[in-house]
Amino acid sequence: MPKPAEVTLPNDREVCVTRTFNAPRQLVWDAHTRPDLVRRWQGYDGWDMPVCDMDVRVGGTYKWLWRNRDDGQQFGFFGRFTSVDEPSTLVHEQFFDPGNADFAMPVGDPCVVALELTEDNGITTLICRLTFASKEARDEAVSTGMADGMEHSYTRLDDLFTAAAPGGG
Questions:
Q1: How far is CA 147 from CA 6, 18, 100, 151, 166, in A?
Q2: How many of the other CB atoms lie within 10 Å of CB of 85?
Q3: What's the N-to-C CA distance of the chain in angstroms?
Q4: Is the dihedral of CA 62, 108, 104, 130 positive or negative?
Q5: Which residue of 6, 7, 28, 132 pairs with 147 in a disulfide if CB–CB is 3.0 to 4.6 A?
Q6: pTM, whole model, 2 decimals?
Q7: What distance in Å separates the CA atoms of residue 52 and residue 49, rounded to the nearest whole number?
């Protein structure tokens, strides 16, 4: 079983998340770049992802939107891919779309999200560096429970990999 994500704050504007998965790097890459897979693991229980548009190429854009099944609240993220090197590096700008949800996340300046994947004997290590426009923006994002939300989604991704494995559930 993979260990939960390790979250550090390497400087005043960054958050670094390190997580391993019991899956080959290509599968972890696909889970981050194919909308049919992204929809299955990103987000919380009780939320659907009706919009998951991804044009994964340098200059390509993406848009993610989640909607709560009970109260209809929705929020999302959107941006542009700035570096794509399959299956190891994916960098994108990330803007927050607050929709009608009551989440206090920074809007305006993008967060730059840099994903790096390495594999050793079928174990993939993900390092996700999030660089915010300011310390205040970083601290505001961290205060939302962002790291817990990422780990929740990564646990769902573990379940997806387990179900897809030979003999998996």
A1: 9, 11, 22, 6, 31
A2: 12
A3: 15
A4: positive
A5: 7
A6: 0.91
A7: 7
**Side-chain-facing half-sphere of 7: CA atoms under 13 Å:** 14
Pair 91, 60: CB distance under 8 Å: no
Are the beta carbons of 17 and 5 closer than 8 angstroms?
Answer: yes
Tell me: the pLDDT tens digits for 16-27? 999 999 999 999
Please, which residues bridge with residue 48 across strands? 67
State pLDDT tens for residues 58-71. 999 999 999 999 99
To the nearest 10 degrees (0 to 180), the angle between helices 25-33 and 146-164 is: 120
**Distance (Å, rounded) from C-alpha 18 to C-alpha 57?**
24
What's the pLDDT at 105? 62
**Distance between CA atoms of residues 19 and 126, nearest Å:** 5
Write the CA distances from 90 to 29, 134, 146, integer angstroms. 9, 22, 20
- Mapped to the 3 state alphabet, what secondary structure does the chain carry? CCCCCEEECCCCCEEEEEEEECCCHHHHHHHHHCHHHHHHHCCCCCEEEEEEEECCCCCCEEEEEEEECCCCCEEEEEEEEEEEECCCEEEEEEEEECCCCCCCCCCCCCEEEEEEEEEECCEEEEEEEEECCCHHHHHHHHHCCHHHHHHHHHHHHHHHHHHHCCCCC
Q: Spell out, as residue ranges, where the chain has pLDDT lower than 50.
A: none
